[in-house]
Design brief:
single chain, alpha/beta, Rossmann fold, two-stranded antiparallel ribbon
């Protein structure tokens, strides 16, 4: 309408709205179906949980419990030997008693926690089968470890067999030269080791009769922490002599050695996991080794198992909360920091 007195139209310049329209257009007053409310209730809480800044010390505490409890209780868990471990174990089993086995323990105390359990298991298995054990090392720090292992296993655990040094087992000692030393073992071992670790001439050691090079051994076992180690033994020794070889190595070395299976290497025991599997196979075949104190590898796998399970659960939980927070943001259906949940009005026909 036109106002003659003022010369202006009395019609409002903007669109007219009603209170009902305001209620419908307001985000906090939109009608919701009862299904939306159910989704909102659960989603809102989960979104709040996902958005919460959880104190990381709770995660540290969980990890402490996951690792500490198995360590304190010395809990062990069943291990099933893989094909790699079975190949090594079965080959030693199939060797005739009295077979000659050269064991090169090429590691130091820094890697002993990971490699010593498999080295000890090798000694137990060889002694149980009655094989002749020839020990050597290319790492200077390994000599004390070898002496400790031989005293613990060959002298103490097999005291009833009365294993005699020089007839049943011997330690050639440490030899420098790295790759050159490996080549010398393959060609002329006596030139490299004129005496054993005790200073006795090899000519005076009964079990050295007929041993001149790597070709005269029935098996080479190498426990390797790095260079020189398993890879160099394959490249510069067993490739030419065709002597069967099995390896125990650190976890980071495993991928470098897998391509040599089965042509150059019978099998690989990788990391503490491989040691635990070998202990499980040894305990199954020889129950006397099933005592917990003799299974360091199995005991050390307990904390790893629980720590890995905890990490998997945390990763899965974190991803679930992230997805839920994206599906149910904090302002969904008008719910958020600046809104009130009481303002949400259910749709007509829905539950009150």
């Amino acid at each position: 309408m036109f106002d003659k007195e003022n010369g202006m139209s009395s019609t409002p310049s903007g669109p007219t709205t009603s209170k009902a329209d305001d209620d419908q257009s307001s985000p906090s007053r939109q009608p919701l179906h009862w299904g939306h409310l159910v989704a909102e209730n659960g989603g809102y809480l989960l979104a709040r949980l996902g958005a919460a800044n959880i104190d990381r010390r709770w995660i540290f505490l969980l990890m402490l419990l996951a690792v500490g409890i198995p360590v304190l209780t010395k809990a062990t868990f069943p291990e099933k030997p893989t094909a790699n471990v079975k190949a090594v174990f079965n080959h030693i089993e199939e060797l005739k008693p009295g077979s000659r086995v050269l064991v090169s323990m090429d590691y130091d105390p820094a890697s002993a926690a990971e490699l010593n359990p498999m080295a000890v298991s090798f000694l137990r298995h060889l002694a149980s089968r009655g094989h002749k054990i020839y020990l050597m090392t290319l790492w200077p720090a390994a000599s004390p470890l070898i002496n400790e292992n031989t005293n613990e296993v060959l002298n103490d655990e097999f005291a009833e067999k009365n294993l005699e040094y020089g007839k049943d087992w011997m330690f050639l000692g440490y030899q420098a030269g790295e790759v050159v030393a490996i080549k010398k073992v393959a060609d002329n071992l006596r030139a490299l080791f004129p005496t054993d670790a005790r200073g006795t001439s090899l000519e005076k050691i009964p079990m050295m009769e007929g041993i001149h090079s790597l070709k005269d051994f029935d098996l080479l076992l190498n426990v390797s922490a790095g260079y020189p180690g398993a890879k160099e033994w394959v490249q510069y020794a067993t490739t030419t002599t065709r002597t069967p070889m099995a390896v125990g190595c650190t976890g980071v070395q495993g991928p470098q050695l897998y391509p040599y299976i089965p042509d150059r290497v019978l099998g690989i025991l990788a990391a503490i996991k491989g040691a635990a599997e070998y202990e499980a196979a040894l305990s199954e075949k020889y129950p006397r080794f099933a005592e917990p104190r003799l299974n360091e590898g199995l005991q050390r796998m307990g904390p790893q198992l629980w720590a890995h399970l905890l990490m998997i659960c945390l990763i899965v939980a974190g991803n679930i909360l992230y997805v839920l927070s994206r599906c149910f943001p904090l302002n969904v259906y008008g719910v958020g920091a600046n809104s009130h949940r009481a303002d949400v009005t259910p749709a007509p026909g829905g539950p009150a």
